[in-house]
Specification:
Blueprint: H1 8-20, H2 32-71, H3 76-85, H4 92-101, H5 103-111
Helix pairs in contact: 1-2, 2-4, 4-5
Amino acid sequence: MPRAKRGFKARRRRNRILKAASGYRGKRNSCHAIANEAVQHAWMHMYRSRKVRKRDFRSLWIQRINAAARGLGATYSKLMGKIGGAGIELNRKMLAEIAISDPVAFKAIASA
């Protein structure tokens, strides 16, 4: 009697992991057990990095707004307080973009 193998679904699961590991160096792209561990770590880092990217971009926008505000003799916190008090509903991404691409408009927003 031949031994029972896991069949189609197990092969499909293994191949899915090996496909995700293609491009990895050494045994990590060809040996299922090692590739599985590498792929799980990669997915963990990818999940975490999607959250970190949002923080990084917000930090970048704040730095850009602060630099532009200091060029006008203000600070980031004072500027954001004035903008909020004036009822201007621009998010940090748009403010940073305006500060870079159109300094005259940024100055008008800052003086409001």
